[in-house]
Design a protein that fits this description.
Blueprint: H1 4-14, H2 53-65, E1 69-73, H3 76-94, E2 100-104, H4 109-117, E3 121-125, H5 140-149, E4 156-160, H6 171-181, E5 184-188, E6 211-214, H7 216-219, E7 227-231, H8 237-250, H9 257-271, H10 274-295, E8 299-300, E9 306-310, H11 318-327, E10 334-335, E11 339-343, H12 352-360, H13 384-388, E12 392-396, E13 411-412, E14 416-417, H14 427-435, E15 440-444
Parallel strand pairs: 2-3, 2-4, 4-5, 5-6
Antiparallel strand pairs: 1-7, 6-7, 8-9, 9-11, 10-11, 12-15, 13-14
Helix pairs in contact: 1-9, 2-9, 3-4, 3-8, 5-6, 10-12
The chain binds pyridoxal-5'-phosphate (PLP).
Length: 445
């Protein structure tokens, strides 16, 4: 597969051009990468009006992911999520439908800002069994039960799959149900770009989602910030027509060409031998999971590139395990009191034995019995947008009982909101804030 963006920039950097354009470093070496860092100069194309090298590269990505259209983001999935909701808003307006979206409660905070900016009402789906805030596998049974009794049909379902702890929803069945009830399916696939390259693709687009975002940087060899907006061949026409407008509405006008080159280079890497590499690697990572289970660890989630340990069942807090690992130069993705999450990719091939030795070297202790606070359904006082645009003041969490939350980012570490702006802070929310160490809140004035 060709790499038109990389080729263009390399050639540009090799010619001794007078750089009388941005960026201000002019190609002078400070970090050592500046010669490859350019902007949308003539010939370098324009990200969201692409007709040249960027278009060619994004078309390569679309063919790899079998989409109708794939656009690059140099601002992660957060940008794509805002664009997805804008497209949904256009679709809802066109159909004369209320902008109401049904969403899994473990949505990332980017979804809340997108809902507020695009003025959506959100109807939440809560976990069927409470395993903490980060985890929510929306089941087809749960969705059917909800849709059969809802007073107003939402225009779409929004799910986060895989979630932060590695749960994967049954997107194939969920998408069939969405079609049956006339909903579109939007997926936050920030953690699952690699799913497209499993022996049988488990990518949301392959399984029936209309649109999804991937953070390429989370699981593929792409620089931080690199992401995709993928639109299915079955998506409403307006998604395809308006995709560039939607992205450019929320994006910076200065996309990073370093990230664009990284996404461009990834196409070549993914097209040639990656499937086989991933398959061989997942076999090895499954073997490690087996060895850990035999040692007495309890693992969580079903994603092949994540190892999530239920730390308390092994006698430790997740944060304690993280410290032990750090002492042995193993840095985890995430740890809270309950879980420790390690993210692996085939680029960790050489690290697997070391990881296994370190984890097997930690002795099991008596189980810690204390459980995370249950996720409960709070009372809503106003919509997300109304609360977010209200005058607000910051108070100690302990003094916020009965008040309306105004901030959208009151979250446990991976940005999953404990309470959503517009909701009344009740005793359950206060317990959760305390459990996750949140001391300050913004409340509606
Ligand atoms: C589930 C989920 N969705 C969306 C995002 C936002 O992605 P990005 O950081 O690529 O903007 C994250 C980031 O951690 C995430 O975990």
């Amino acid at each position: 597969m060709n790499t038109p963006i990389c080729d263009y920039v390399k050639k540009y950097a090799e010619n001794s051009n007078l750089r009388l354009h941005m960026p201000g470093h002019k190609g002078t070496s400070f970090l050592g990468i500046e010669h490859l860092d350019i902007t949308e100069i003539q010939g370098a194309d324009v990200l969201y009006s692409a007709e040249g090298i960027i278009k060619e590269s994004m078309d390569n990505a679309a063919s790899l992911f079998s989409t109708a259209k794939t656009l690059y983001s140099t601002e992660g999935s957060s940008l794509s999520i805002r664009a997805m909701l804008y497209l949904l808003k256009l679709y809802a307006k066109g159909k004369g439908r209320t902008p109401l979206i049904l969403a899994g409660r473990n949505a990332h905070k980017a979804f809340l800002s997108a809902a507020a900016l695009n003025d959506f009402n959100v109807d939440w789906l809560y976990p069927e069994k409470s395993e903490g805030l980060l985890s929510l596998k929306v089941t087809p049974e749960q969705l059917r039960a909800h849709l059969e009794k809802c007073k107003e049909m939402p225009v779409a379902l929004y799910i986060t799959s895989p979630d932060y702890l590695g749960n994967v929803s049954n997107i194939k069945e969920l998408s069939a149900l969405c079609r049956e009830f006339g909903l579109l399916l939007l997926v936050d696939n920030a953690h699952g770009a690699y799913l497209n390259f499993l022996k049988e693709s488990a990518h949301p687009i392959a399984l029936g989602a209309d649109i999804c975002c991937d953070s390429a940087h989370k699981t593929l060899p792409v620089l931080t910030g690199g992401g995709y907006l993928h639109i299915s061949k079955n998506a409403p026409e307006i998604f395809i027509e308006q995709a560039e407008n939607a992205m450019s509405l929320f994006a910076s006008t200065s996309p990073s060409y370093l990230i664009l080159q990284s996404l461009d280079m990834a196409n070549r890497y993914l097209a040639k031998g990656y499937k086989e590499k991933l398959s061989a690697f997942t076999e090895k990572s499954q073997n490690i999971k087996k060895a850990l289970t035999q040692k007495g660890y309890t693992l969580f989630g079903d994603e092949v590139l994540k190892i999530t340990i239920c730390a308390k069942k092994y006698g430790y807090l997740g944060t304690e395990l993280a410290e032990i690992l750090k002492g042995k130069n193993v840095v985890c993705e995430f740890a809270d009191k309950d879980f420790l999450t390690l993210m692996l990719t085939p680029e960790n091939e050489e690290d697997l034995n070391e990881l296994k030795d370190v984890l097997l070297g930690i002795e099991k202790r008596q189980k810690i019995n204390d459980a995370p606070p249950c996720v409960t359904v709070p009372k809503k006082a106003m919509g997300i947008r109304d609360a977010l645009f209200c005058q607000s003041i910051e108070v100690n969490a302990k003094e916020a009982s009965g008040k309306i939350l105004a901030s959208y980012n009151v979250s446990c570490p991976p940005a999953v909101p404990i309470a959503v702006c517009g909701e009344i802070i009740d005793e359950n929310a206060l317990k959760a804030f305390e459990y996750y160490g949140i001391e300050k809140l913004r409340i509606v004035k």
